[in-house]
Amino acid sequence: MCRLTAYLGPDIPLERIIVLPSHSLLQQSQQANEAKLAVNGDGFGIAWYSDEKFPGLYRDVLPAWSDGNLTSLCRMIKSRLFLAHVRASTFGETSRSNCHPFTYKNWSFAHNGQIAEFGLIRRGLEASLSDELYNHRRGTTDSELFFLLALQHGLQTNPQKAIESTIAKIREAQLALGKKIRDPNRIASVFSDGQTVYGFRCSSDLKSPTLYASGDLTSGGHALASEPLDGNMDNWTTLEEGQFVEMNKDGMKFTKLSVS
Fold this sequence. Notes:
alpha+beta
């Protein structure tokens, strides 16, 4: 399983979330505490927003801890909103096009988890995309396809409903196989339109990957993360199974996903 984080608030150097905390995302890439694998070394990526409408994007196949450029970029780049991800691959080879976050216009998306029987349902799901979204696909992961399906189902107008519809579409494809699904769907994600950060976690076996929301950070902002960045559970709220969060400059709003 991968590890991810997202930040929204006053401009800060990216290193204050990704590098410097005692249990930063960089630390989690080598020593995750709440994942099947402690090491997440199949690539990394960051997407950040400034005054431009579309996010900047930096991704590579190197383990995050072995890329000397990453710490330098995180020290020099300041942003009011950014996503970051370290990858432990479940589907799709280790390549830059398969590293998160994925972007489309002003949207960015990072994912942690798995879609059951993806190899068997992938073709049908891809066929349901519009030509524009299908042609935008660059990699082979279930994560990128989930993002494109969410865009297909109205992510740009109603993010929560789009996520619910995407999960339902995937479940429908799995049931159409007419066989017992051996593995569960397990999904945790953070994504953004450049103004608001969204996150959720859900699964078919009530064992979705962890996701936490921070209290007020010293910067005055908030963060979502796979594991508490300061290592202190008291400073973070656990997203419950099937919970959706919307984070903006006014704070956080938690709701329940309508999924079966």
